[in-house]
Amino acid sequence: MALGFATKAIHIGQQPDTATGSVTVPLYQTSTFAQEGIGQHHGFEYARTNNPTRAAWEKNIAALEDGTDAIAFASGMAAIDAVARLFNSGDHILLAEDMYGGTFRLFDTVFRRHGIHFDTVDMRSLDAVRASLRPTTRLLFTETPTNPLMTISDIAALAEIAHSVGALLAVDNTFASPYFQRPLSLGADIVIHSATKYLGGHSDLVHGVVVVRSAELAERLHFLQNAAGAVPGPFDCWLLLRSVKTLAVRMEQHQKNALAIAELCQEHPAVAKVYYPGLPSHPQHELARRQMSGFSGMVSIELGSRQKAEQFMAALEIITLAESLGGVESLVCHPATMTHASIPPSVREARGITEGLVRLSIGIEDTSDLLEDVRRALDRCI
Questions:
Q1: N or C: which end of the chain has fewer CB within 10 A?
Q2: Is 172 a catalytic residue?
Q3: Which of 361, 130, 140 is nearest to 262 (CA)?
Q4: pLDDT in tens, 4-13
């Protein structure tokens, strides 16, 4: 029986507990497991290696991403770190130029020292991607939509390019969530999430996860998960199992509210530019419609100056100034000084991450309240 997304989110990996009948997966808050004899156990030996609550969560998110397996980590950056560790000194990796600042920082300050070469490229341009390939290219790594400019990468086309030279394609799917986009079904080999964001959805945990199609990749990543030990605690996994049950309904409301805010900003005289792939005016709107079933809750706006950005953020009453995104509450941040501060200023400016750029994570509050909050704040910027 083929199950729909919401049904899988509620039931896959979350069958009633066989020991007690508990409908909710138990929280196995333990560091070790009793063994009946040498080599005789129930599939669990030590909690860094595996934990029943974590195993349930990994099974669930693998199903939601149409993957064969998932590997959970203590943060989104730990997940990206594990993927990078699949490669060797001398290997070359292509990164999308418009990515989270922490991803750039990891490659620039950590993996560069270990001999992994990387370049950034505008992955909207397939010709630019092809021109940037080297004989040693082993991975193409993109976000789509990207953080914070909401550009869209053609996942199927990038997968074809990567595979033509024996490389892998990894997609950070944090902004879309598996509800709106499933990169593995479009040809990607690896999907990465900062599960802190939409998968967790309540701003109460830090977590990362990698989902793959290949059993061989899964085996290598599970080895790294255990060997390096950047594993999540069982309580975070339990919270994710709880949260993902409402992912479908949350994402619909996130999108409804974000589209309303984007349309308001598009018409407001204080806004120079709106970045939201759900708007027909977005230059890659048609591509987004082809590979996504919805457009999520992230909106960025250009206000023209640092002064106006500060005026706007200070005038908001419902929307909170804070790092992160994807929670039920609406948040606003200033990428140039917050999420992308680790990128050199000249590089940020060249990519469009200006002092006047503001990123909004639109929550699931009443639409009318959010519209009034944003409208009032924008009026202060005229």
A1: N
A2: yes
A3: 361
A4: 999 999 999 9
